[in-house]
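Q: I'm writing a short methods note and want an example of a predicted protein-small molecule complex. Could you take the sequence and the SMILES for MGD and return the bound structure as tokens? Please keep the output block clean; save any remarks for afterwards.
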Amino acid sequence: MSTTISRRGLLKGIALAGAGASAPGCALFAKASGTADEPWTGYVICDSCNHVPQCGIRFHAKGNTVLKIENWTENPRNMLCSKGLSTLQRLYNPNRLLYPMKRTNPKGSKDPGWVRISWDEAYKMIAAKMLATREKYGPESVMFYAGDPKEPRPAIYRLARYFGSTTWCTESSVGCRSGCMMAEELNFGCPNNGGTPSADTKVYLILATNVWSQPLDWWKAIMAAKDRGCKIITIDSRRTKAAEIADIHLQPRVGTDAALVAGMCRVLIKENLYDKAFVEEWTNGFEAYKAYVEEFTPEKTEELTGVPAQLVVEGARLWAKGPGAFTLTTQSTSHNSNGVNNTRALLLLPIIMGYIDKKGGAAFGQGPKGLTMAAYGLHPTLSEVAWFNKPEQKARRLDREEVPLWAEMKDQVSPNNFPEWVRDGKVRMFCGWGFNVNIWPSPQEYAAAVAKLDFAFSSDYFYRPDSHDNLDIVLPAAMNYERFAPFGWYGPRIAVRKPVKPLGECREDWRIAFELGCIVDKPEHFFGGDPKAACDFVIRNLGGAGWDAFEAALPAVSKVPAPEPGFEKFRTGRMRPDGKPGFNTVSGKLDFASARAGKYGYPELPVFKPMMPLTKEFDLRLMNGTRKPHITHSKTRSDQPFLLDIENCLTIDMAPEDAEKRGIREGDWVEIRSPYGGPVEAKVTVTILVPPGLVGAQYGWLGKQNTQVLVGREVRDPMSGYSAYFEMPVSVKKLEKTEA
Ligand SMILES: Nc1nc2c(c(=O)[nH]1)N[C@H]1C(S)=C(S)[C@@H](COP(=O)(O)OP(=O)(O)OC[C@H]3O[C@@H](n4cnc5c(=O)[nH]c(N)nc54)[C@H](O)[C@@H]3O)O[C@H]1N2
Ligand SMILES: Nc1nc2c(c(=O)[nH]1)N[C@H]1C(S)=C(S)[C@@H](COP(=O)(O)OP(=O)(O)OC[C@H]3O[C@@H](n4cnc5c(=O)[nH]c(N)nc54)[C@H](O)[C@@H]3O)O[C@H]1N2
Ligand SMILES: [Mo]
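A: Understood, no commentary inside the block.
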């Protein structure tokens, strides 16, 4: 598949789509400047979703202008989707930020009065503020933040570390995958959210994972397994594509997974289907869990979850016909107020059956030494992750009393109390990369906090009024086609890039972080400001031949040495840093009960807890944010106008019964309210994708269509500090209007 667009056609398309994100009063578009007309071929990584699947893009350029893109077939991830294929529209979008800008009007003014400044001036102002703020209020008062963009992170980790601030946080510590990862680490002693089924897998468990959130090859692998005769069980609150192809679809009400799993485990125990020998030798706390699940009869489980009693039994019996593998959502089960425990419960299913690291079971893959995307640190040595994990740093953390288990386990601070930190003077300055206030519940409160800071800057592709209007400086970031760092990696394989030069004065994020580091600290800590040198350092650290050799090999994707794969690595000490058999948990075993959680007053077992009750007024539950194939968070709308052709406003999914009761039909406009905010306006799709009682929505639409105002800040999972994005009770009423 490939896509080609002409500059003229592109500009026309964008004008029609009315891209709503330009900076007031700035000429932002510069022509791509090429040197020669020689056609050449480049290689980069797609950054459309969350910088994680790292799908490969091959592009054809003339001079410095990319004319056409296609699948980079030699790359292990080589199928571009609608989002990736439209990224050229983003690269040449006339609303791109191209120059550093500073405000000239006081905060709170309607027009910030942005003027173009040089990088020198921007760096001088920022560095002076960083040093003065640290001097006066201590290092923790300077907050470092990266949004969904994960690629800038390794460099920002390093900047925060050498600047000496533990107030380093990301969208993952606000509310992405780290909540589920916390559950994985509590149960397994390491992150593991599963993988695709192998040739020997007999049953595959899809735990709340959305086909549309995954790279295209994910679905292909599952369909291939199904063709081989592998049985599929899907546990999802909606009737998704993954539910449609399942042999058994278990559809618990949102946030009730801990009860469903308790019911299933009770069946496995009563019918003696579980792996007794494995449980005895390799797990901890089984007896306590066994006693806990006693009350979760199939009937009681049905009452709590909505899953028919018979299906609870059948689901458990089918799962016992393993070996079984699983895949776990990256985030959605952590988006309710019992999120970590619901996720821990789901992850007991492979444990109780002993499918851990067995042939055909749940693999515990090990990449090249130290290379871990799990912390989005790319490489712990580059990111200096060890520094953040030292006791003296942990003792200084701003979140240590608010989310103590999180603070112990995670190297990134939980910033969900950012408004309170600003109010109390704990945070004075903000250094952002890809910062979006609309990630948060009640985003207006976070925007107001930004306005109260002494100084704030962020780097971005575009000017986003909600997030940027109260900054002091906005910096233009180079896009994926224009940067060297970081390289893509797929197990032992490493894909370096051959990019174009940035448009205007854009700079890559790694360079911005390193250049600031050179000023506030020492150039020798920051590779003299050179991102490519930093990547070369990591590649050589991994035993690879280095950047130049890897670039010369393009389009082939090079390799670094990696540990031999192997099964049951826990028997031979490969799962623990000390080399002893077992797992890297406190108990040394897989934990049904976690003393680590108990230490801070959380329940040791992954217990069930009811969700916020619905009321007469707020009689539906809002699942605010499940993924769609053509949308990423708040991006990919006006940035890539092709995608607005698919959907150009907030649409919500409603079950036919719920729509009918309210006199609502497909295509009607409605208003949504919650106890915390609204009204939010949306167009309705009537669909069996959602069960009665549940409304599904996309977050990321702005203005009157911004669903984040419906989410209350105080409803959180106490373990992760994450907001209950998927739990809010809402009302939905028909509006008498036909246009947005
Ligand atoms: N209600 C609800 N809220 C949610 C979620 C949900 O499901 N429901 N999901 C949560 C999850 S899982 C996530 S990951 C977050 C996502 O939350 P965000 O991090 O807010 O994601 P984006 O909307 O992608 O915004 C990121 C910003 O970074 C900019 N950007 C993109 N790439 C780069 C880059 O490489 N460099 C720089 N400098 N800037 C860049 C974009 O232009 C954009 O302005 O939202 C969370 N919030
Ligand atoms: N197209 C696209 N792809 C993306 C993104 C994007 O914005 N767009 N974002 C990327 C990012 S940052 C992330 S974190 C991932 C998210 O990836 P996923 O977590 O896979 O995505 P979601 O669609 O939020 O949720 C998955 C499923 O969980 C179900 N679910 C929700 N709550 C519950 C519950 O309480 N119990 C059960 N059993 N099921 C539940 C939903 O019905 C949904 O089908 O996607 C990444 N990929
Ligand atoms: Mo995410």
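A: Remarks, as requested: The chain has a mean pLDDT of 92. The CA atoms of residues 93 and 639 lie 7 Å apart.
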